[in-house]
Amino acid sequence: MAKRVVLKLSGEAFADAETNYGIDPVTVQRVADEIAKVHDEGYEIAVVVGGGNIFRGLSSAAVGMDRANADYMGMLATVINALALRDALERAGAPCRVQTAISIQQVAEPYIRLRAMRHLEKRRVVVFAGGTGNPFFTTDTTAALRAAEIGADVVLKGTKVEGVYDADPVTVPEAKLIEDVTYMEVIAQRLKVMDTTAITMCMDNDLPIRVFNLRTPGNVIRAVQGEPVGTLVH
To answer: Phi, psi at residue 62, to the nearest 5°?
Structure first.
């Protein structure tokens, strides 16, 4: 059971389930309600958001766009998602602050580690946007970095599948769910949990990772409370 957690949300958590694109208010509110339940139970929760539902920097770089420029565009996309989540969290009754690694003072606070920790202590949800503020780093790495910085007990990664599989369950129907795996096994077997930088950072800081299906109602609070949902990487 954790007291302070970092929840990693990909852009898919904000999009319509069929298109995986744009921001669907109903989907965002459902996710916000799940986070609000965790907050109401007395846990400190910070959220790292992706931006793939609006813009995917890596895929755009693959078709000729400058990678650094594409990544900065992706960072801006995460800010849009963070603002949408903040609005939904406030409506769900959970006080929220958005901090970004890139300076956009009109809409969000700059990321300051001690201020973020103070917000959590004051019973506010903190949403981290803008990635690390640097190109060439994913939001998975951001989640690992922020979790280490604020002294989180666990990194939770909400996905659209039940956990980590030995193959892609979308293309391989007989793929098997792995319920317990080590950091080194993830790296050696190239399991698609997080990128290698994020896994290594969690390993170096002894941060367990819980991967679970975000679309199953109640899974966020179950993961926070230490129930065996999805896959545990440790």
So the answer is: -65, -25
d(CA 131, CA 166): 28
**pTM for this model (two decimals):** 0.93
Alpha carbon of residue 130 to chain centroid: 12
Residue recorded with tokens 């299906």? 213
Rounded Cα–Cα distance for residues 152 and 231 (Å)? 18
- Rg (alpha carbons) of the chain, rounded to whole number: 16
- Superfamily for the 4-233 domain: Acetylglutamate kinase-like (3.40.1160.10)
- Distance from C-alpha of 100 to C-alpha of 205, rounded to nearest angstrom: 23
Summarised one tens digit per residue, pLDDT across range 101-131 is 999 999 999 999 999 999 999 999 999 999 9
Which residues, other chains included, contact 108 with Cβ-Cβ below 8 Å and sequence gap of 6+?
79, 82, 83, 98, 99, 100, 129
